[in-house]
Amino acid sequence: MAKTTNLFLCGVGGQGILLASEVISSVCMKVGLDIKQSEVHGMAQRGGSVVAHLRFGEKVYSPLIAPGGADIVVSFELLEALRYLPYMNRNTRVIVNTQKILPAPVATGVDKYPADVVDQLRQRGITVFPLDAFVAAKDVGETRAVNMVLVGALSALLSFDEKIFLEVISERIPEKVREKNIAAFLKGKEALQGILMSSEQARK
Amino acid sequence: MITYNSLFYGNLMKNKHNIGDNVLLSGNEAIARGAFEAGVKVASAYPGTPSTEILENLCTYEGVYAEWAPNEKVALEVALGASFAGARALATMKHVGLNVAADPLFTAAYTGVKGGLVIVTADDPEMHSSQNEQDNRNYAYAAKVPVLEPSDASEAKEFLKIAFRISEEFDTPVLVRTTTRVAHVKGMVRIGITENSSATLGIEKMPEKFVMLPAHARKRRVELEKRMVRLREFAETFPENRVEWRDKQKGFVTSGVSYLYVKEAFPEASVLKLGMAYPFPDRMIKDFASKVNDLFIVEELDPFIEAHVRALGIACHGKDLIPAMGELNTHIVRRSITGEAAADLFAPVLIPPRPPNLCAGCPHRGIFHAIAKLKVFVAGDIGCYTLAALKPLSSMDSCVCMGASIGTAFGMEKALGRDALGKIVAVIGDSTFMHSGITGLINVVYNRGFSTVIILDNRTTGMTGHQPNPSTGVTLCGEEGAAVDIEALCRAIGVQHVITIDPHQHESAEKILRQEIERPEPSVIITKAPCALLPEIRKKKDKNLYTVQEKTCTGCRSCLKIGCPAIEWVPLTPEEAEQMGYKKTQKGHSSINPVMCIGCGQCVPLCKFKAIVIAGEENG
Predict the structure, then answer these.
(1) In whole angstroms, what is the distance from residue B520 CA to residue B512 CA?
(2) Which burial class, exposed, middle or buried, applies to A191 when counting CB atoms under 10 A from its CB (0-12, 13-18, 19+)?
(3) With an 8 Å Cβ cutoff, are B354 and A103 in contact?
(4) CA triplet B543, B601, B366: central angle to 5 degrees?
(5) Domain residue ranges of chain A, discontinuous segments joined by +
(6) Residues of B in contact with A86 (CB under 8 A)
(7) Which residues in chain B have their CB less than 8 angstroms from residue A38's CB?
(8) Spatial contact of B131 and B399, defined as CB atoms under 8 Å apart
(9) Distance from B597 to chain A by nearest Cα, in Å?
(10) Yes or no, beta carbons of A68 and B569 under 8 Å apart
(11) Spatial separation of the C-alpha atoms in residues B357 and B387, rounded to whole Å
(12) What is the SS3 string spanning B29-40?
């Protein structure tokens, strides 16, 4: 893997984006890649829009992804995917959690939630994989495992061994909720593999 | 009581690394590790983004005493004292914290050290979580101390160890300057062995070195200049000031995170990387400049290196091309220098903004809703509550620096005289009051003011991620002990009218506020309720959550005025309204998100129609 892979995560403060980034970074490290993981703490976490930049490869210098430079985007919330459009290009693959978390102006009725986020991305030629990670997390009985559902989905687009992901999750997640988080991971992976298969069949 | 230990348990486990392991650490975690490997005995800090995690991590290492001080000045004085006793000592702070600690810093440069003394300043270009973006390399120049600038986590760890060695060898405090993209970027770090100070622990009286009377200070002033000469010489051979020769068409002088952007933007160019950004290796710079065709200085914020290079009489490019505001990145560095047009990027789409907001159940929301009704000028301060300046609460009118609220409110009052009575309040958090609000309050009493000061006591330091403070009585490492009694403290200062109220009860709070602002004497209102994110609230069982009884909701939107993230507006078409049994003209109804509601009850009195009820107690 000579080229650096640029993975952009976005969502809302409190969705567990930082933990998800750490799991992915730890996996990269275990397979012997160089990694830089950039995030912002403090003010940004009070329910605001949150991003993390992950870059991995043989040797990584900059901690930040350049505009238009994301290879994969994982959006933990629906409309946040649209907010970071300038980081995408036509070859970017975007995993979108279709869960809506209303921003304050929408919640107070001042503004409207955009109706066609996925279509707006697709109209620009971007490959989008929409899935409802909140429902998936609810199905495994742990609504806080939305982040692991999305890590699972992401793992279907990466070439790393599933075993390594499970190893890292086991190390990072407290025992009490470990099984449910692993179930969430597997559910996310399965969901994305399902989308990949059906789109392949559609092509045939 | 809250057990803060539980917050750090994960880190305790994590810090059991083996020597030689490669581990993933943030810049701040790496600095903590570096301090540990350097044999630091005493570390003191006040939390501030992006520096906070350094001490939170350091306190999990064995053999290190680490503490939260009330402010950065105290933190640096504690570290200086430990150094006087022969221990390696560390003080860490965010960039603006060094303004508070500047007083001891400038004279510590005169006294020098016994045990190594390192001060980490974490700057915040782009102001991700700060009120300004000052470039603290300027402090190195002004205070005449060396500054090291690591560019990633791995360097951050090594530079800490180097900083301690320089401190002891040159008898000087050493600054280590990071930025957000060093502090909060995780990267690979190799765990190393620990080393020891060259100093010996013990009490040693050295008045000519430690007592900065003018007569002594004048002698130390000469020593300081001699030290700077030695440090400049050291800079010429310091291995972390290094040249990476490649193509000599373009040559870059850079430091810190900017080095990484240069390496990626111009991998084929030659680079002079300054691990020590002050004092400068003049011969090295001149030699490098003479061997490259075009010289570029790439640095975030001020033209700190550039000004020096120009003063050496060397022609170069710098801030004529590269922005002096905000963060840099690979893209900006490349485009500024090559002049190439931006790639064909997707234009941003207009979507609703998602500004940060006070959490659901935040006690600040209740009190700011009450304050908003007073229509007064609200002199604000630094903390989560600064978010009350945003819509819909819109109830903060100034915010400058830690502790400024009381002084600025009082200054307005003195300018306006009696006309100011009932028109101004100062608000300040518990931790901020401990940091630097107390002296402001003393001034109000001493100088016969009538200020109304609201102390927002949420039992923690919220914005930086829930650090305990002197008024919570819990230490950084989780020991419980004496807590400063804010109410007793205000009385001891001489405030006659001190009252503690529950901010969630905003209706009664409003009555008390109205009464207190009219008082022609100083008064303090302490609004006491724990932060909604503290475990004692989050893990509370049998919470009464609230819901909107839809048939009773008239869609008047009164409950939306407090901006609680759990309360959502559900817009309705006339048909939908009719289907739900509303008048066709009703535009929507409110709804409470059961996942977000924590049952604070602030919204209940806002609804005149009694549509907000305890979930499960709706009447059919």
Answers:
(1) 15
(2) buried
(3) yes
(4) 130
(5) 5-203
(6) 345-348
(7) 181, 184-186
(8) yes
(9) 14
(10) no
(11) 6
(12) HHHHHHHHHCCC
Pairwise CA distance, residues B114 & B209, whole Å: 10
- Tokens 């650096």 belong to A4
Say which CATH topology domain A5-203 has.
Pyruvate-ferredoxin Oxidoreductase; domain 3 (3.40.920)
pLDDT digits (tens, 9 = 90+) for B381-402: 999 999 999 989 999 999 999 9
Scanning every residue of chain B, which has its alpha carbon at the shortest distance from the alpha carbon of A24?
Answer: B24
Interface check for A170 against chain B (CB to CB < 8 A): the answer is: no
H-type alpha helices, chain A? 17-30, 80-83, 104-107, 117-123, 133-139, 146-155, 162-172, 175-203
B539 Cβ contact list (under 8 Å, min separation 6): none
A158: tokens are 């990466």
- Check CB contact under 8 Å for A104 and B354: yes
Measured distance CA(A88)–CA(A97) in Å, rounded: 17
Amino acid at A149: V
Q: At B14, which amino acid appears?
A: K
Question: Binning pLDDT at 50, 70 and 90, where does residue B3 land?
Answer: very low
Q: Which residues pair with B457 in a beta bridge?
A: B528
Burial class (CB in 10 A: 0-12, 13-18, 19+), A59: exposed
Structure token digits, residue B395 = 């109830």
Q: What is the pLDDT of residue B15?
A: 58
Torsion of CA B66, B69, B74, B77, to 10 degrees: -10
Which two three-digit tokens encode residue B427?
């608000």
Average pLDDT in the B332-349 region? 89
H helix intervals, B112-152: 137-143
Tell me which chain B residues have a C-beta less than 8 angstroms from the C-beta of A41.
Answer: 49-50, 52-53, 129, 184, 465
Q: Which residue of A has its CA nearest to B94?
A: A42
Q: Is A125 on the interface with B (CB under 8 A)?
A: no
Say whether A63 and B595 touch across the interface (CB within 8 A): no
Strands B269-274 and B377-379: unpaired
Task: Identify residue B229 by its one-letter amino acid code.
Answer: V
Nearest to B24 among A25, A43, A103 (CB): A25
Q: Which of A43, A51, A89 to mutate to test the interface with B (most CBs of B within 10 A)?
A: A43
Burial class of residue B166 (count of CB atoms within 10 Å of its CB; 0-12, 13-18, 19+): buried
CA A125 to chain centre: 19
The beta-carbon neighbor of B571 closest among A12, A38, A109 is A109
8 A C-beta contact, residue B363 and residue B527: yes
Using CA coordinates, name the residue in chain B closest to A52: B185
Nearest CB neighbour to B186, from listed A37, A43, A113:
A37
Query: CA–CA separation, B484 vs B475, rounded Å?
Result: 12
Number of inter-chain CB pairs under 8 A, A vs B: 168
- Looking at the DSSP bridge assignments, the partners of residue B66 are B43
Selected for mutation to probe chain B from A61, A77, A94, A100 (highest B CB count within 10 Å) is A61
Whether B571 sits inside 8 A of A63 (CB atoms) is no
Terminal CA-CA length for chain B: 41
Chain B hits for A39, CB-CB cut-off 8 Å, are 184-185
Q: Residue B150 has what DSSP assignment? A: -
Give the span between the Cα atoms of B83 and B106, in whole angstroms: 16
Q: Extract the tokens encoding B161.
A: 């160890």
Interchain CB distance below 8 Å, B330 and A80 = no
Q: Is the ipTM of this complex over 0.90?
A: yes
Give pLDDT tens digits for B140-197.
999 999 999 999 999 999 999 999 999 999 999 999 999 999 999 999 999 999 998 8
Cβ pair B275, B238 in contact under 8 A: yes
List the domains of chain B with CATH numbers: 5-236 (3.40.50.970), 241-338 (3.40.50.920), 363-476+484-537 (3.40.50.970), 541-614 (3.30.70.20)
